[in-house]
Amino acid sequence: ANWLIIASREYFIPIVNRMHEILVEEKYLHADETPIQVLNEPGKPATSKSYMWVYSSIRESSKPIRIFEYKPDRKAENPQKFLEDFNGTLISDGYGGYNNIEDVINAYCWAHARRKFYEALPA
Questions:
Q1: Which residues pair with 35 in a beta bridge?
Q2: For the chain, how many structural domains are there in total?
Q3: For a FRET experiment, which of 40, 43, 47, 74 has its CA 20 to 30 Å from that of 59?
């Protein structure tokens, strides 16, 4: 596996960094995070949650980019740091961690909004 670690550092990371530079130049982005379990993660029990964050250009973009970023937690500083050079409209599920990103207009996903109404219907 050592060759993969070296290849990642030498070849893949510069490509992902360039993709990130291009992505934050977009006017509209999608962002979402989902919990995952990582076995034998240092300092965490095997059943604890970690998160995979995804940042994506919109479907209509001429530069389709998706970047997945692993983080051991769901802290608001994760999207704030990733999106610090972005100054457009961010489409997300409404997670509060996206709300305090400087120079970003938040637009929330209609599917998530609909779900809240649907869940409230039986009440």
A1: 51
A2: 1
A3: 74
Q: Tokens for 32?
A: 């979402």
Q: What is the DSSP letter of 83?
A: T
Tell me the CA distances in angstroms from 109 to 40, 55, 94, 101, one per residue in order: 34, 14, 7, 17
> Residue 19: which pLDDT band, with cuts at 50, 70 and 90?
very high
Q: What is the mean pLDDT of residues 61-83?
A: 96
Q: Which domain holds residue 26?
A: 2-120
Residue partners of 80: CB distance under 8 A and separation at least 6: 97, 100, 101, 102
> Is the per-residue pLDDT at 39 higher than 90?
no
pLDDT of res. 123: 67
